[in-house]
Amino acid sequence: MYRFLLSRQWVILTLVSLLLIPTMIRLGFWQMHRHDERAARNQLVSDALAADPVPVETLTTPGHDVTRSERYRGVTATGAFDTGHEIVVRRRVNADEKVGFHVLTPFVLTDGRVLLVNRGWIPANAPSQTDFPRIPAPPHGRITVTGRLMPDETTAASGIKDLKGLPDRQVMLINSEQEARRLGAPVLGGYVVQTAPEPKGDTPELLGPPGSEDSALNFAYAIQWWLFSAGVPFGWLTLARREARERAAAAAQAPERTEPAPV
């Protein structure tokens, strides 16, 4: 009944099925790996946001690369804003997906070192893209700011190209080493996304906390791939049985061959 399995069509179907099973199993494990990565990242972010703020000097120094465990940590800094060397970061969007700028203002600490503070988002309100936008002034004098510590931005991590030849005081990426060269001062590694004090008039718009990644979706995809892998042999067996029944029915309906009568 099952000699048809040796046909070219069924040999190819069987080989494809045997190839699909381990491939789907591996895809399931890959999705579980993504689930574990995202869950661990979500936990790191949650722990960092829940921790009490610490002085920024305890976590970063000039030239320091902000680590994964330091990212999003709440920090405080005391000093004064240097609006004379303020710059803007191009092509940034707010919560409503409107394109504008992030305002990056050097914050001179009491010991003379500089901390880069992202004060938030402003719309592209200049007459042209080459003009420097109008930026609301920060508080004057010595103050204490609170924010989330972030690593320097890179093209590899963000996908944003570091374009050259931009208008004066406009950049694509926030990079402490680049700003240290521009300012001629010791700049702490990374930068801080300001969360307090809130600006007067609600502008610049403070940047909200990072959203959590949907790790549950990866878990569901893993289960789905494993169910697919279990369904392949079941589907193959169902097709084989159906074809065997169809061949048997066709053979039963075929007219019997009769022997010629003797002369």
Please give a structural write-up:
It is found in: Cell membrane; Membrane. It is a multi-pass membrane protein. Its main location: membrane. With 263 residues, the chain is an alpha/beta fold. It has 2 domains: 3-42 and 217-249; 55-202, no CATH class. Helices cover 36% and strands 21% of the residues. It has helices at 8-50, 155-158, 176-183, 215-253, and strands at 54-55, 74-81, 87-93, 99-109, 114-123, 143-150, 170-171, 191-196. Strands 2-4-5-8-6 form a 5-stranded mixed beta barrel. It starts with 7 loop residues before the first helix and ends in a 10-residue tail after the last helix. The model has no long low-confidence stretch (mean pLDDT 90).
SSE inventory with pairings:
Blueprint: H1 8-50, E1 54-55, E2 74-81, E3 87-93, E4 99-109, E5 114-123, E6 143-150, H2 155-158, E7 170-171, H3 176-183, E8 191-196, H4 215-253
Parallel strand pairs: 1-2, 3-7, 5-8
Antiparallel strand pairs: 2-4, 2-6, 3-4, 4-5, 6-8
Helix pairs in contact: 1-4
- State which percent range the strand residues make up: 15-25%
The strand count comes to 8
How many discrete structural domains?
2
> What helical percentage do the residues reach?
25-40%
| Shape summary | elongated
**Helix/strand structural class:** alpha/beta
Tell me the number of helical segments per DSSP (H or I, 4 or more residues long). 4
Summary, kept brief:
By secondary structure, this protein is an alpha/beta fold.
Key attributes of the depicted protein:
cell membrane, five-stranded mixed beta barrel, 263 residues, elongated, 4 helices, alpha/beta, Surf1/Surf4
